[in-house]
Each structure stands twice: as structure tokens, then as C-alpha cells.
Amino acid sequence: MSRIGKNPVSIPAGVEVAVVDGLLTAKGKMGELKMQTLPEIEVEVSDGQILVTPKSDDKFARAMWGTTRANVANMCQGVSEGFQKEMELVGVGYRAMVQGQRLQLQLAYSHDIYYDIPAGIEIKCDKPTSIIVKGADKQVVGQVCAEIRAYRPPEPYKGKGIKFVGEQIFRKEGKKK
After folding, report:
1. 142 φ, ψ to 5°?
2. What local confidence, expressed as pLDDT, does residue 2 receive?
């Protein structure tokens, strides 16, 4: 039995949730998100709460019960408050700046790297060495951060690269004489 799936998802104030033919739609101040529910999972809205239950007792339905409930909770939180991840650039000459709908990165390559910002995502660079990614969809925010980080992941000797704020980089000892 899923312990996460048993808990109902409370709908925050200012969020409208509707389920029509297996399509769950959530609207709020941060935007609108849609999710197609699986045929094995039943989602119903009642009394300001969303209840997720499996239709059968097979293994796949039980496995997707808690996953669907977590995705529904992320949708409700995303359209009401949104999600945010902060990254920092560590290294001499590493800089980031936003130019319109593109993020320009200088990462000690012979050329600048331009990253096109997807729809529904907002990127801010308060300092040249910090990147803040905001959006309503938790999965898209994480994917954008992963794509930006992939340009120069942190290396273990000096710690240079793009890392999340508060992340501990495993450091290695260099060569000895």
C-alpha cells in the first residue's frame, strides 16, 4: 500500500483544479499546467481536496498511485507558488547573463555558450556568478538546470564549474611530489 498516495492533496487558495476525461488541469497565478492521468489511476476533486486512488490492485497501479499523487501535489504547488533553483558559477572568468530569451554563459571555452530559455521558465542573473531558474513546472525547472549544468559540471580537483547553491562537491587530492 502506498503511504504517500493515501494522503489527499489540499488545493491552495486561488487554484482551480478540474478533471475531464482523464486530463487534470490546474490554473493559478503562476500559469496553467495539464497532466494526462493513467487509466489505472482515478483522480477526483471534492471539498477542496484531490483524492488519488488506484482502480485495481495490480502491481503497476500500486506503483503509479504514489507517483501520481506526488505529481498532482507538485502541480498545485507550482501554479500557486512556483518552483525555484539557484545555481552558482565557480571559476575565474565564469559569467552568466540574460539577453532577451537567451542565457549567455562564459565558461572558459574559446566561445560563449547561448542557451535558449524555454517557455514558462524565467531565468535571472542577479550577479554574474549566479543563476536563478523559476517556473511553475517542477520537472521543467529541474531539466533546465540539468542542461545548464551539463555545459561545465563541477570538477573534483579545484571545484570549478556550475553547481547548485549549497551543494557539496567531493574534492580529490592532487598529485604529490
Report:
1. -65, -40
2. 60
